[in-house]
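Need tokens for this chain, all 222 residues.
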Amino acid sequence: MYDFIQTHWLDIFTTILGLIYIWLEYRAHIALWVVSVIMPACDIYLYWSHGLYGDAGMAAYYTLASIYGFALWQYRQHHPKHPAKPSKPGSATQRDSVEAEQSRSTNYLITHFPRRHVVPATLFFFVSWAAVYWLLVGVINPREEYVNSLWPVADAFTNALSFVALWALARKYVEQWLIWIVVDIVTAVMYVGKDIPFKASLYALYVFIAILGYRKWKRMMV
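Here are the structure tokens for all 222 residues:
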């Protein structure tokens, strides 16, 4: 047992941070960005040591992007034009309305992904996928056994899609949850194959929580 913990302690620690992060994201709480700075800093070493070079680079990107996300949530103010619909006392809808009001007082509103951003975001995803793949197989790890495997394809895919998802989260678009569902499914499978069991379990849980988060954020919209 001691040897197992000693081997997987960083995996366990970052998994705990991941649970805290997803709970804060589910609540649309600004503190999620603080955890999002600490967790990827630890993930850089974890992923690199398991040959997930793209994820290691993504973790470094997360650290910087989280600072952007925190600043955007903290200082950008949106003023709603329409009040929230009244709901029954003690109901889930009323609780969500209260949380939405608290969110408006400190951050800005949850909105839908604008249609005008769909095409640019899609193009950005495919360009990023190709760019990250080239970086993985051409610069970071050009070894034949890695290049000829599916790992760089999947690694680049989750990284590119995560770029879009993280940007959508920073903008507080409700559809960011749908993007994360795809990322989480692919990532969970990858981590099983790379023997990172706790992270694999975490991302499998993320899929379930992302579904709940999507429904909750939609209720919090006004």
